[in-house]
Design a protein that fits this description.
Length: about 80
């Protein structure tokens, strides 16, 4: 347990930050899954879901939640699925 006030405050902040980061990553994964299921079922809104997924991936990458190479790889794979 931290003794200094600043360490206690930092712990409180870290809990909040971790929750928001996890939420961001979860929403990114959900957006990717929604797009992939739409592509598998040949839904007509696949283009919109693709744009939402790419936006979520870019947002997570810019915040440092995922590596930029992983973001590029994911976007590339999604665009290949969309092109088929």
């Amino acid at each position: 347990m931290p003794n200094m006030d600043q360490a206690i405050k930092r712990q409180r902040q870290d809990v909040k930050k971790r929750a928001t980061n996890q939420s961001q990553v979860t929403s990114m994964r959900s957006a990717k899954k929604k797009f992939l299921t739409a592509v598998d079922t040949d839904a007509d809104n696949a283009k919109d879901l693709y744009e939402d997924a790419v936006k979520a991936i870019d947002k997570a990458s810019s915040k440092g939640l995922i590596h930029e190479n992983k973001a590029a790889r994911d976007k590339s794979r999604l665009s290949k699925k969309l092109a088929k």
